[in-house]
Amino acid sequence: MTKADIVNEIAEKTGIEKIAVQASVESFMKVIKNHMTEGKNIYLRGFGSFIVKKRAEKTGRNISKNTTIIIPAHYIPSFKPAKTFAEKVKKNVQLKPEGGNQ
Fold first, then answer.
1. How many CA atoms lie within 13 A of 57 on its CB side?
2. Edge-to-edge, what's the strand order for the sheet holding 42-44?
3. Range 23-29, long-range pairs (CB < 8 A, 24+ positions)
4. Residue-wise DSSP of 37-92
5. pTM, 2 dp
């Protein structure tokens, strides 16, 4: 599903014009990005949490040059779904059979 699909579905279900829905979706994403770049977490009850996780410094390898490099500590955005949301997905999404090309 793409952002355009989300806008279309919300517009159909609410009767609000697509332009207004798109502006709302864009604003929602902008607020989340801005707060997370400031190191703040966002909690949406019943949906999940957008959290900033710290990755510790670690040693990595540059395979092409066969050298060791230090990867500095850094922060990454992460999403943790609410328990009710995760359970609903777990119950409703079926696993594809092994080896199947479906």
1. 3
2. 42-44, 48-55, 74-81
3. none
4. HTT--EEETTTEEEEEEEEPPEEEEETTTTEEEEE--EEEEEEEE-HHHHHHHHHH
5. 0.74
CA distance 83 to 51: 15
Find where tokens 């999403």 sit.
79
Residue 46 token pair: 């019943």
Each residue's pLDDT tens digit, 30-50: 999 999 999 999 999 999 999
In this structure, how many other beta carbons lie within 10 angstroms of the beta carbon of residue 7? 20
What is the Cα–Cα distance from 85 to 8, expressed in whole angstroms? 22
Closest CA to 9 of 1, 44, 31: 1
